[in-house]
Write a structure and sequence with these properties.
Blueprint (H helix, E strand, L loop, with lengths): L1 H18 L8 H21 L2 H22 L1 E5 L5 E5 L2
Antiparallel strand pairs: 1-2
Helix pairs in contact: 1-2, 2-3
């Protein structure tokens, strides 16, 4: 249990540090998957105290992080005819 708690704490600390980074390269979805996976592993490991819980949490967190990061990176503008045009956010 102590080993799992230590590794989960390290993963959570890494997720916190990754959240402070402003990447200039890479995709938002990829970055979201990394942060979500680390946070999910931390939560799953601490909640269950097992490696299996950490692995499931990492998978769910990675998928959720990728979906959320991809969805929040799309900005749009509306032209005079009311059509939406999607573009990268600045």
């Amino acid at each position: 249990m102590k080993k799992v708690t230590t590794l989960v704490s390290i993963a959570l600390f890494g997720a916190l540090l990754a959240g402070c980074n402003t990447p200039t390269t890479g995709s938002r979805a990829g970055d979201g998957a990394v942060v979500g996976g680390l946070a999910g592993a931390a939560v799953g490991g601490l909640a269950t105290g097992t490696w299996g819980g950490a692995a499931i949490g990492a998978g769910v967190g990675a998928i959720g992080g990728a979906i959320i990061a991809d969805a929040t990176g799309k900005c749009y503008w509306v032209d005079q005819q009311g059509r939406k045009h999607y573009t990268a956010c600045r």
